[in-house]
Amino acid sequence: MATVFSSTTGVIGQLPTNKQANDSSAKDSYFDLAGILDAMSGMVFLLDRWGVIQLANSLALKLCNGENPVGKNVMELDCGWQDASACQRDILYVVRSGLAKRGSVENIFVEGQMRCYCVDIAPASKHAHSPVGVFLTLTDITHQEDSLRALRDSESRHRAFIASSADAIWAYELVPPVDISLPVNQQVDLIMRRALLTECNEKMARIYGVSDITSVVGRPIYLNGSMSNKEDIRRFVLNNYRVEDHEFTRIDKFGELGYMLSSATGVIENGKLMRAWGSTRDVTDQRRYLDRMRYLANHDTLTSLPNRNLLYKELERVLSNRSQNQKVALLLVDLDRFKEINDTLGHQAGDKVLKQLGPRLEVELGDTPGMVARLGGDEFAILLSNIRNRQHAVVTAHRFADAIAERFDLDTFSTELQSSIGVVICPDQAEDVSTLMRYADVAMYHAKNNMKAVSIYDAEYDPNSAKRLTVTGALGRAIREEQLVLFYQPKVDLKTHRVYGFEALIRWIHPELGFIPPSDFVPMVELSSWIYPMTLWVLEQTIKQCAMWRDAGLDLTLAMNLSPRNLADDRIVNDLEVLLKKYNVRGGMLEMEITESMLMSDPNRASRILERINKLGVRLSIDDFGTGYSSLAYLKRLPVKTLKIDGSFIMNMLESEQDEIIVKSTIHLAHNLGLDVVAEGVETLEVYDRLNSLECDSVQGYYIAKPMPIESVGAWLADYQS
């Protein structure tokens, strides 16, 4: 009987010869070998030098469908072997050469399933070069192959995602890593020196201005073109090695300024920053588009002068930064007989006059601190940010009147115009934007009615001054004695054309003066200590009405306005929560409207208050959108659900291409930010239909209904829905 050896471990057993098949000791050795093979984790066959199976372990019987394989070669096995002939050739090769063949992979049907096996063929011999047979071992590697295939697929998808991403995807490796326990400044310096670009996609290469990724891989981070690189890295470190939607500027290889939006995450291992993964998007086109939209929202398209919105912002800025001894003048200019030019020569001639007048006024302003703005039609405003005294303002106004009186050339025709200019001084006569504008208007009409070129404001010219004093003195009593009432204006969903809610608008019914419009008392209340009691009264009445509608089975929301001072008062959130519980009203029935100027006066405090209000379920909306300076990136971070487009853009959108562009772009922008859009000031069916075609979400205005007392709401609602 020949002794059987494995190729690596020595004696395994003995392969019985025919002569010794009945010998008892041989049989014992034979059964010892069978026991060893059964204990192995794979399928094992013992074949003689002619490739005939002499022995198989119990696992190998699965391959043979339970049939005894002894006496057969691998090609005779009925086991779904995909290439049995190749395996048979390998067996004979091992017998002839005495060299093992390992690691080939074979797919075999076992018990009705395709399984993957690693095939090892090793000589069984007493001497290295005289094999008497072979061991054929099949190890099931299906799980490993599936895992490897899944890993390859995942890596392929990962690389495909990176390659096809619209954003630049990148990774910076820290060589060597940076210890995150070091002081922040030291970490920033080390990251600047050690961070190398190790991986990126083609989009990143294009940002660098090259077409080949290999041209940028290996670049240090300080060569990425950012104009604020060190501060960007400091923000990354201070923000726990993360940065999200951070905008920065960079200069490309052609010297062009670009705007980038980047997010990044650091990988920390054992207290060291190893690498940073991130994405960068080139938002230059979007930024320029938004800058253009902001320009259109704040400038007159005909004259390119600042418009009313920008004038108000600049006036607010100047007043808030005014020193104690600084005097500011506001001039309101109206062109006399300008309508005659339009009626006689046509609107094109009138437009040519206005186009010539804008630069003429700016030249006259010269280096004087201030602004020239067109308010609309033939009205202009001139802000003088720093004047010496009252006489200085009057003399300057006469200079502007003289400049306007110069000849205007209209192709083959020329004409002259006169003007009426009203002047008001801050702080001598007023200290807020609203009052300054009103007083300048009063002075301008006095100049026009008295055929004067310039008139400075005097209380004797103001027919409303006595009434204003009476109103101011009665404000406290009005709040205490509940002379205030709420009127309700409906809002309509443009998709369903159904009323889904109302806006609560405050009104004052004075026992002696009668109806007082909000514009005559709300600005004064906001400057007084009565603002919070009035807000609290409105808040309770609004929530109470929500509860009454709910109990009546009406699914309606109700919106109210917040004052800028409310966002600086922590009491508003606590009282809101108490009132919601008192009337058992869920927050989603209530909506609070805030203006852009409110947000930007103290963004951090406003954000904290709004987050607390949002947690109560109350919806938040931006009122009069388009008239403020709010940052879009800042708005995106606020819990705001709705933008309300200011009525000044809506009312003239069918006649003004500029206004329609602003409305259309605002709707598109809001939807991209996941916000709903409400259009205010809808007064005609044509505007209603146009907003519907622009996919505006809902509308509000006199075309739907004027604000009405609560007693009229039920009947109006029933009539509208019918």
TrEMBL record:
InterPro entries: Biofilm_reg_signaling, EAL_dom, EAL_sf, GGDEF_dom, Nucleotide_cyclase, PAS-like_dom_sf, Rev_trsase/Diguanyl_cyclase
Organism domain of life: Bacteria
SMART domains with a match to the protein in the record: EAL, GGDEF
Pfam families: EAL, GGDEF
Domain EAL residues, every copy: 468-721
Residue ranges constituting the GGDEF domain according to the UniProt record: 326-459
PANTHER family named among the record's database cross-references: BIOFILM ARCHITECTURE MAINTENANCE PROTEIN MBAA (PTHR44757:SF2), DIGUANYLATE CYCLASE DGCP (PTHR44757)
Protein name: Diguanylate cyclase/phosphodiesterase
Species per Swiss-Prot/TrEMBL record: Saccharophagus degradans (strain 2-40 / ATCC 43961 / DSM 17024)
Lineage: Bacteria, Pseudomonadati, Pseudomonadota, Gammaproteobacteria, Cellvibrionales
